[in-house]
Fold these 2 entries.
Entry 1:
Amino acid sequence: MQQILINGAWVDAREGPPLEIVNPATLERLGTVANCGARGVALAVGAAGAALPGWHALGASQRASLLREIAVRVRTRLRELAKLLTEESGKPLCESSDCVEAVAALFEGGAALAESGVAQAPAGVVAAITPFNFPLLFMASAIASTLAAGRTIVCKPAQQNPLACLRLVDSFQGLPAGVINLVTGGPDTGAALATHPDITHVKFTGSVEVGTAIAAAATTSNRCVELELGCVGALVVCRDADLDVTVPALAWARLFNGGQVCTSGKHIYVERSIAADFVERMHQCIGFLDVDDPLKRPTDLGPLISLASAHRVEDQVGRALREGAKLILGGRRFRPSGLPGHFFQPTILADVPEAGVPVREEILGPVVTVTPFADLPEAILRCARAPRCPIALYTGDPHGALRLLKEAAAREFRINGPSGGAMGPFGGIYHGEVRRLLDAASAHDMAVSVERKAWWFPYRAREIA
Ligand code: NAD
């Protein structure tokens, strides 16, 4: 696929050598995509600008019905999209199926938003720049909300795995030409899009580093920037937490998508009196996960997205050990079933020192890291005082914990992970100062207890559509 989508047609727009897309589990070459650079971006933004008046004039109910049609087409292509997503991203097939189903639901949500009349975006063309870890999901989220608001869009998926996003275009038939445009390329293409003078609104999901640069570049223009960024955050487990449910909950929260997750709760604090039991149970839980080719069932964990990612995780684990953390499980790259891809063993690091690597840096890999704490007031104070540290707390006494969190003036917290799949504050809280994209949930949520979810590990029990 060497072309980009401009004004409803596939066109050539190459500025540099094409980008190779590789299956991260097998290292098979899946194809190449264009590195379209500033020239392709200019064409795409021009097309989106030209389509804007017609799309805006169409009226909310017609826009809603077109969005619903997209959802229907996505569902009919669920298997095909999920397989491609797995091949280029390394996600276990059931996770990819869930992602595609969520994409269809996002378009339905966009339709409802259009009909409700509350969908809003600044006038003009929107740019969506999205990360490798949930390529379809973040692109669909940006498209659905933009189209619902009567705006048009230029999307740039991540350079590692844009193929499923390109294939999603098949589901856009019926839309007026130019409403959705899709460019491919690396950071240069992203920068050209984010700074194009005719873009009035950038929706960026990705690293703190890139998001901060995009926001800084926008301060001299009238461009609106929405950010969903990375974060570490704290998962706090109290001695009265129900470990039968909390351990599998956190194992899944940390390790789904190979641990390449954007949820803010990444480092685990456990009350000292139960720390050994917690670590032992975590070992039992993730030590038996099926790490293999993600296309095979019932693989729980696939590879990391690239060799660079695998090296980064290896380096982070090595530095954490040198700082005094204790290796309980894993810690290395390896070749499950002889596969040559970028696999990393499910890993547990215990006794991580107070300001160790896992507390300072986002680890995008299958690594569970644990620091013991003395008692709940100590943990809350420690997290509430740390800059940019959202808290997800697991306890049998949610009301007592709530009182302590409020006394400590904790800004962002959840108790017993009530807000769905991610089991913790979602996605780069504190960095998205302008406006966040996805998180409609309150920053303060509480449930009496953690509920076991059907989508947690192990995946051998899961049916795939
Ligand atoms: P990244 O920031 O490296 O890349 C994201 C996108 O930005 C890619 O499309 C990339 O090509 C583009 N890009 C790179 N440099 C650019 C530049 N200078 N100007 C404009 N665009 C540029 O992030 P990644 O490695 O793909 O994704 C992982 C990160 O994303 C993690 O930090 C993760 O926590 C975060 N993330 C956050 C959320 C959330 O909801 N908060 C969701 C997913 C991922």
Note: The pocket of nicotinamide-adenine-dinucleotide is lined by residues 129-134, 156, 158-159, 186-187, 190-191, 194, 205-207, 210, 213-214, 228-230, 262, 362, 427-428, 438 (CB under 6 Å).
Entry 2:
Amino acid sequence: MDTASARAAKLRELLARYDYEYYVLDAPSVPDAEYDRLFRELQELERAHPSLVVASSPTQRVGGAVSGAFAAVRHASPMLSLNNAFADEEVLAFDHRVRERLAEEGLPVEELRYSAELKYDGVAVSLRYEHGVLVQAATRGDGATGEDVTANIRTVRAIPLRLAGIAPALLEVRGEVLMYRREFERLNERQREAGEREFVNPRNAAAGSLRQLDPAITASRPLRFFAYGLGESAGAALPATHSALLDWLARIGLPVGPERTVAEGPQELLAFHRRMQSLRPTLAYDIDGVVYKVECRDWYDAIGFVARAPRFALAHKFPAEEALTELLDIEVQVGRTGKLTPVARLRPVFVGGVTVTNATLHNEDEIARKDLLIGDTVVVRRAGDVIPEVVRALPERRGEPPPRRAFEMPRTCPVCGSSAVREEGEADWRCVGGLYCAAQRKQALLHFAQRRAMDIEGLGEKLVDQLVDTGLVRTPADLYRLDIATLAGLERMGEKSAANLVEAIRRSRRTSFARFLFGLGIRHVGEEVARVLAEHYRDTAALMREDWPALAAAKANIQKDNARRRARGEAPEPVPLEGIGPEIVASLQRFLAEPHNREVIAALQASGIEFVRDAAPGEALAGRSFVVTGTLPTLSREQAHELIRRHGGTVASSVSRKTDFVVAGEAAGSKLGRARELGIAVIDEAALLTMTGEGRSRRSPDEPDHHSSGSDPA
Ligand code: 5U1
């Protein structure tokens, strides 16, 4: 029995440590399977020797009994709320008031410091520890009385059932229960698969999970916790400052947010707010602002309270990431490949720090899935540097004006009137007008001229509109016939800009075959595919001679033979144009079978296009995979990609375990967060340049991006 008792104690200690590493430090030291094995061993020991079961055992987190409803809990000291500030001036006024109070109370104003931390977007709870053991947990409720969620909180593995190292008679810990964004998404996936209700956001999911009548359900939800303060306490020597209190809470086993600082005055508080706002998209969890508190805890009573909010603290909120607005209309845009994209026209709304007036709705299925009607009140979301999206409608508002009407995808192109078709198995409708369609012509020209293709500096959207609308340009080949006098006659075009543009067009004639192929805008032929094709065919004549059905058949045969060879343990034969799948082959065949396209290619060649090889790739980054995110100080995204490729590296658009480096710039978004989660090396532009040996940047920071990218929703 003694050995069983000792083993149980050891297992409890180990499991508590692993919970702490996993949930608090985010650094598990053992695989999940090992955790599960120890957990089962403890369960079996406790089953064999019921007297070994103690309330603080990790096995007791999942309460078996279903409680009827939540009992009311009167908080020993009220759970306060915070006064909010949105503007910098309000922070200055807060600091001013604090200083005034300190002076009135005869306290040393010159010693004033603030502690700043994150404002977690979760559910406030109070945890009551008696003699170091968690005995009660309650929600905030109305601040005076909350709900008893002890059984549920006991299942949250981030919350210690017993404090580490100390056992004060009483300690009420205040903090926030929340859910990490990725875990929230996984939960919603599970909910979807099970046909259950999805949660709107992580806070909602955390609140819903905490208020489950069956603690076993709470136990299955990935809840986290961050402590930020205290309620009542007795028998503990508490630190004198708030920042030291947070350190102390961390030492006794409570999770405390890592992002915090001590500030000398309001300017440093504002700097913290700005820093956290840019960090916000990279955090694993939602925050809605930062919280400032006077450092010296002894001064709290003297500074006092207004109603239920302390005067020694302030919540400095971030602009909301979600807002309600009206879906005024749904318009249809035509992309380069004829894709018709429905776009929401919104009543202007300030969200995520910018005014949003429109948002892509992607395709008609998306509109149906979100059940959107024109006239609906909708939730618009813009988080970090992510493009704004219409999240959902509020059908409960449909009784109110204006009248609603359903959107229907037009059966003809809104620009050229050609028919629109939706092919079997595709989500998109497309205009069949091709280059007859002015919208497609404009987009095709912008695509052709962009930096990554023919790089014609100065050929932007406004100019392309004029060139197409006046009939001066129908195809990319027409660009090479433009002269200074014609261009100078256009709106907003002087002699000088016309001459510059003609020169840029002339210069663009010397290009690589890969850029030229990419610039043609063939469906499914992105830069990478264009590179493979250029490497294989070398010039347009060879490409145009290709027998595409024969090539597709040959590829399929070799692939079949290779499968047999592999089964026999033999080496496979090389497949021609590896990586160019049947969809791309079919698209090339379609494009090159079109006489009009062959004419454009011939006319371009006749205008003096000359292919030179792109610089041979270096070796410095060979075998390394990169993802670039955020705004780099001097390189544009395309320049960074080009640099990486030129030195033998590969570029991916999303972060995975295969990524070697994430190059992060300012306002880096969720990719940076993902990199941190996966432990992938994050470097800045300077490090990238050093790795490639290119030292200095290729574009000065204040030189603007010279022309529109002609990006295409298609
Ligand atoms: N981080 C943090 N959140 N939060 C919320 N600190 C903090 N403090 C609070 C609240 C309601 O209240 C105390 C200042 C009383």
Note: The chain is about 35% helix and 20% strand.
